[in-house]
Specification:
The protein is of the alpha/beta class. It contains seven helices and twelve strands. The strands form two sheets. A seven-stranded antiparallel sheet has the order 4-3-7-1-2-6-5. A hairpin with a 4-residue loop joins strand 5 and strand 6. The protein is globular, with a radius of gyration of 19 Å. The two termini are about 25 Å apart. The N terminus is likely disordered. This is Siderophore-interacting protein. GO terms for molecular function: oxidoreductase activity. InterPro entries: FAD-bd_FR_type, FNR_nucleotide-bd, Riboflavin_synthase-like_b-brl, SIP_FAD-bd, SIP_fam, SIP_rossman_dom. It holds the Pfam family SIP.
Length: about 280
């Protein structure tokens, strides 16, 4: 690793350490893994959502958290898969060291299902035309295709007390997985808000996930107005006495929810996890 790349690795560690002072973050993993996986299935759940199933012996050994996210290492069409060094936290620098003509793309996703007994993982990917490497992969993936898997981290950890979960369609797979690990008592103390243009952007059956929750709201709004619509929903139905909040999805949605909770509901910043999975008008990385 070059001195420049090592400096970037130190910087990224410092960023995460600093973020822990202003939002709720679980401990950072001490090591990462990177390995090849094979596509076994590509299922169209809705016109906007594909479920990709992958397998590899290493998957049986993983112990992912509820909203565990990972990197798909996607080689150029027709090119051999070249994996980056997993020992570095700065995976971008490792990818940039690979010759450009065979350099893979990297896109981050969360796990929907993990089946260690069959060494399989399901990943739900939103598709909107052929607009980027992740979408193109989701549309074209065939059983037998080989791509890379780079472990990363998770943001969810259970905090005792009343909680709020806010998600858009990109964060909905993680939110659904979180709900599935909560017991009846924990569900009864959980408020869920899902912002979506329409039901076809969500996993079929997602709207049935409300059973036993304290409250459940579906805010149907276009991407450009989702953040404001969710804040209005919070104003109309709150405030609640929250001990923890998890707000993920489009960057402005996550940011404005956090701002409202801190300024209007007087929540501590360190009780809120917010993450911009993507940003309107910017390519997802």
């Amino acid at each position: 690793m070059s001195l420049k790349d090592r400096a970037m690795e130190v910087f990224l560690h410092a960023v995460r350490k600093g973020a822990a002072r202003t939002m709720d973050l679980p401990p950072e993993p001490q090591s990462h893994a990177c390995f090849a996986v094979t596509v076994t299935k590509n299922e169209e759940l809705t016109p906007h959502l594909r479920r990709i199933t992958i397998t590899a012996p290493e998957i049986a050994q993983l112990t992912p958290e509820a909203d565990e996210y990972f990197g798909f290492i996607l080689p150029p069409k027709g090119a051999e898969l070249h994996l980056p060094d997993a020992s570095s936290i700065n995976v971008r620098a490792e990818l940039n060291a690979i010759p450009e003509e065979v350099r893979p793309d990297l896109r981050w996703y969360t796990i929907r299902h993990h089946r260690p007994e069959s060494a399989e993982i399901d990943v739900d990917i939103l598709v909107h035309g052929r607009t980027g490497p992740g979408t193109i992969f989701a549309l074209d993936a065939q059983p037998g295709d080989t791509v890379g898997y780079r472990t990363l981290s998770a943001t969810w950890h259970l905090v005792d007390g009343e909680r709020l979960i806010v998600a858009d369609p990109t964060a909905a797979p993680a939110a659904r997985r979180i709900l599935e690990i909560l017991d009846a008592t924990e569900r009864a103390r959980t408020h869920l808000i899902v912002a979506t243009p329409d039901d076809e952007h969500l996993e079929p059956g997602f709207l049935d996930a409300a059973e036993g929750l304290a409250t459940f709201s579906v805010v149907r709004a276009d991407v450009d107005t989702q953040a404001e619509a969710v804040v209005e929903d919070l104003k109309r139905r709150g405030p609640w006495t929250l001990h923890h909040a998890w707000a993920c999805g489009e960057a402005q949605l996550a940011k404005q929810v956090r701002r409202h909770l801190v300024r209007e509901w007087k929540m501590e910043k360190t009780s809120i996890l917010f993450s911009g999975y993507w940003r309107v008008g910017a390519a997802r990385a």
